[in-house]
Amino acid sequence: MEFPKVLLDKISHYLIDRSETISIAESVTSGFLQLAFSEMPDAEKFFNGGMTAYTANEKIKHLDIHPEEAEAENCVSKNITETMVLNAAKIFDTDWAIATTGYATPVPESGGEIFAHFAISYQGDIILSDRIDLHPLTNPLAAKHYFMEFILGCLRCEVKRNFPALAMKG
Q: Considering its fold, how many domains does the chain have in total?
């Protein structure tokens, strides 16, 4: 699998330069984001860790998702993703966190759609929460890879947007 090296290098540089840390809680991306972070230069300086909580039971157990909400939403919603991101930051004690949940294959529970909810938090606040929609014929592996790259691009933009001094550096 290929990763967007320039993007990974920029994120790594920004986080190291600021002495900030990041963690990840993912479901639909199945560990792709954690793998991408492990490929970044000097990852041990800023990547505290992550978890892949694929089932509702694991999201309830490890990420403090409310059981009734998990059941009502099949554990896939904007609110669930936002809860995941805030709890990942707490669990791993990080400045930044990313969370994902969704569907990489069209199933009845998704209404036949392929999509991902994702959220990015910084210092306990959600700074971005959105949804990515893909064509229902998208290959599941390609969908996960696309979600990962899109989210990493958003992270880089958020770091630059929220910190103008970094935007001037490129």
A: 1
